[in-house]
Amino acid sequence: MAVPAPRIRDMKRSGIREIMDLAAQRSDVLHLEVGQPDFATPTHIVEAACAAATQGYTTYTANKGLLEVRESITAKLKRDNAIDVAADDVVISCGAVNALFESLVALVSPGDAILLPDPGWPNYEMMADTLSAQVSRYPLLPDEGYIPDLERLDALAAEPGAKVLIINSPGNPTGAVFPRWVIEELVDIARRHDLYLISDECYEQIVFEGEHVSPGSLEHDGRVLSVFSMSKSYAMTGWRMGYVAGESSLIDLVAKVQEPVVSCATSVTQKAGQAALEGDQSCVREMTASYRARRDVVVDLLRSGGLLINEPKGAFYILADISAASSDSYAFARRLVAEKGVAVAPGLTFGPAGAGVVRLSLATDLDQLRTGTQRLVEAVSQ
Ligand code: PLP
């Protein structure tokens, strides 16, 4: 009897989904687990998509995407990220997740090791499992604003088989924004150990303090792939558009992978993305200001309840310390749904470092966020 691929059968499910499914069985749950903007896509972007559909942008595009959209991406990369690439050095993808996966497919062979942050976005590990790659986790340091433990990372990077370093700033689930010196060190570690560096910058625009620094602006020996998303900055999660930029020969490989995976990103979405990148950016500033105001409220509540680890400087998540109540954040999150009607993401889904923490999403309406955080504080102190 034929059997399906064991590595997929045995792949761990995202704990966020598990809690979402549990919470979906009740109608009175406050949802603080989901990481997607609660704003509508700005009208000018939706209108551009409607116009594109009627103008015939309904066919396949080149694997890399429509040239005029890639040109608007290169202008944005130059202006906002100090990354200077040609339109041919960009692949437009179906969300950052697609760009990250295709980049890994292009770089990694079975058995190679991918260095991942702990805690970090669970999908990285799922991608590694899909590719039969090894996972090597480098710690982020809570007491230092969740920047990477550079000494430990350096040691892991020196191990045989290490091939790709994934970094994520602003970070999910930590809200860390790595300062310039850290990005410089990370680029240096990649160079010294001859690793590829994939930089997941999908929260690049959502920064409350500090500056976002793209590693692609600091290195010129072609080992960095810079991945971006339209989902978070422009409240476009369902449109599915991201992009990846890098050195020509690497980008050509990513485009080659794009052919059998999705062929091209959705044509109408690409035109919507162009309108987003070229249009008025005040929508991004307004949404970011809103996440920041919500962060301030949650930080105060967690601080007075003794659960604050540190203040996120970007993205739209905050980690809460629940270790006084439990060292099994899965069990705690299930109990919080059952007893308090609040859904949060269990820290363990982001890696072993998440044992005694849960993640709250700031992409939630302020009233729900306030009540949900208060109930979380009560649950830990009971
Ligand atoms: N990278 C990180 C760290 C994320 O948190 C997410 C989405 O939650 C993504 C990538 C995927 O973004 P996209 O919607 O562009 O696929």
What would the keywords be for this entry?
382 residues, alpha/beta, Aspartate Aminotransferase, domain 1, Aspartate Aminotransferase, domain 2, 2 domains, eight-stranded mixed β-sheet, three-stranded antiparallel β-sheet, 13 helices, 13 strands, 42% helix, globular, binds pyridoxal-5'-phosphate, transaminase activity, aminotransferase, PyrdxlP-dep_Trfase_major, pyridoxal phosphate, transferase
Summarize the structure.
This is Aminotransferase. It contains 13 helices and 13 strands.
Structure explained in plain terms:
It is a single chain. By secondary structure, the protein is an alpha/beta fold. The protein folds into two domains: 6-41 and 282-381, Aspartate Aminotransferase, domain 1; 43-278, Aspartate Aminotransferase, domain 2. It contains 13 helices and 13 strands. The chain has helices at residues 6-9, 15-23, 43-54, 67-81, 95-107, 122-130, 150-157, 180-192, 248-261, 267-278, 282-305, 329-340, 366-381, and strands spanning 30-31, 90-93, 113-118, 134-141, 147-148, 162-168, 196-200, 224-229, 242-245, 317-321, 342-343, 345-346, 357-361. It has an eight-stranded mixed sheet with strand order 2-9-8-7-6-3-4-5, with helices on both faces. It has a three-stranded antiparallel sheet with strand order 10-13-12. A two-stranded parallel ribbon has the order 1-11. The longest helix has 24 residues, at 282-305. The protein is globular. It starts with 5 loop residues before the first helix and ends with a helix. Pyridoxal-5'-phosphate binds next to helix 5.
